């Protein structure tokens, strides 16, 4: 993937994972009203009008991806990831961070869980689905580790704050989950083999391909931002980065 430097933000490069997923984040008032509209945030939202942007900060060390918005109606991690991206823009990093704050801007715009009738966290193994295009980008960029950030409601699966991991074939997944759990208190959900519970999660497809990955969940009603959920998701993201020495 070819990244272009972003004018006015000298530490940031950007390209697109897909142009089919474009959407106006500002139409989701439940999310947009919570966004601090810095110049960089405005640029990110503008970029989403054309598709799924991926941002790159830093150019050394480990390559880490922070991903959110696989489910467009899970709002806390998308707000947290945009906030994190703003914090990283002016930092000199000892590793390279890739950030996808809005995996499916169209789904986020509509406050919907799916995209093109697909649950993207059950479709990452389906060739050329939007989540599979994210997997393709991960492999092309030779990303070393992936953190996928979600939210869950009381009546859904898992229904509590947690971090998913698996022992095989990428055992570092469990070590990262343990680090996050120790830092922020999220309960560990651990499987013996990636993808054994269900197929197509971004985390599982990454682990099965030898790229250590975890999925973090915070508790919030779908299509809204529950009290404290944005802050906890941001803590999970920062803990994930701290595992790599950020």
From TrEMBL:
- Taxonomically, the superkingdom here is Archaea
Q: Does the keyword field hold Hydrolase?
A: yes
Q: Which UniProt keywords apply?
A: Hydrolase, Metal-binding, Zinc
Cofactors, names only:
Zn(2+)
Q: Which InterPro entries match?
A: AstE_AspA_cat
Give GO terms: molecular function aspect only. hydrolase activity, acting on ester bonds; metal ion binding
- Domain Succinylglutamate desuccinylase/Aspartoacylase catalytic residues, every copy: 61-156
Q: Could you list the residue ranges that cross the membrane?
A: none
A Pfam family it matches: AstE_AspA_cat
Q: Does this entry carry the keyword Cytoplasm?
A: no
What this protein is called in its record is Deacylase
